[in-house]
Amino acid sequence: xxxxxxxxxxxxxxxxxxxxxxxxxxxxxxxxxxxxxxxxxxxxxxxxxxxxxxxxxxxxxxxxxxxxxxxxxxxxxxxxxxxxxxxxxxxxxxxxxxxxxxxxxxxxxxxxxxxxxxxxxxxxxxxxxxxxxxxxxxxxxxxxxxxxxxxxxxxxxxxxxxxxxxxxxxxxxxxxxxxxxxxxxxxxxxxxxxxxxxxxxxxxxxxxxxxxxxxxxxxxxxxxxxxx
Length: 228
Hints:
Elements: H1 3-11, E1 16-23, H2 25-38, E2 43-49, E3 53-56, H3 67-72, E4 76-79, E5 87-89, E6 94-100, H4 108-126, E7 131-132, E8 156-158, E9 161-162, E10 164-171, E11 174-181, H5 187-193, H6 213-226
Parallel strand pairs: 1-2, 3-4
Antiparallel strand pairs: 2-6, 3-5, 6-11, 7-8, 8-9, 10-11
Helix pairs in contact: 4-6
């Protein structure tokens, strides 16, 4: 069974929706992992962060990271269960997690593109003029280890710029994909932590700083019910 067939089944199934409010970085990652392990039905979880938090990819080296500087600046550090590079989360960010309890033989890439496409449809239903990238670009390992430098094919973009950074992991045929929409960000803080990192595109940059998690959740439900 391919992604299209699986998604048609998921569209007609019973989804579990969680609006989880603001939590620490470790609690957010722990809750995502618990959902991956235990969710009995497809799940969309939306949450925010209670303080600036630098998340590192599961296997990412951290020798470049100045943990004392992070502590002085009031920035938590957490390691994600998913891969990818470092990402600075802010307390004005909206983060999504999708958990699918049975994806069978659907490939990581096929599911990644499919979930991102559903998110793009959801945001377009709200009026955001987003699209998904047709091809990706990954800088060499010598470049700064920042997630914003990497564009994976299928990711949600606004006028060609990456808007949502996402990552995925599997446990058997169970899937977790999570990603973030930064509302305003703190470019000064980002420069202190990762001087060479490119600034992320934010919702404020495109006139959507007012977007709320509840709006995304409602639009996702509408898209599942009425979209084609």
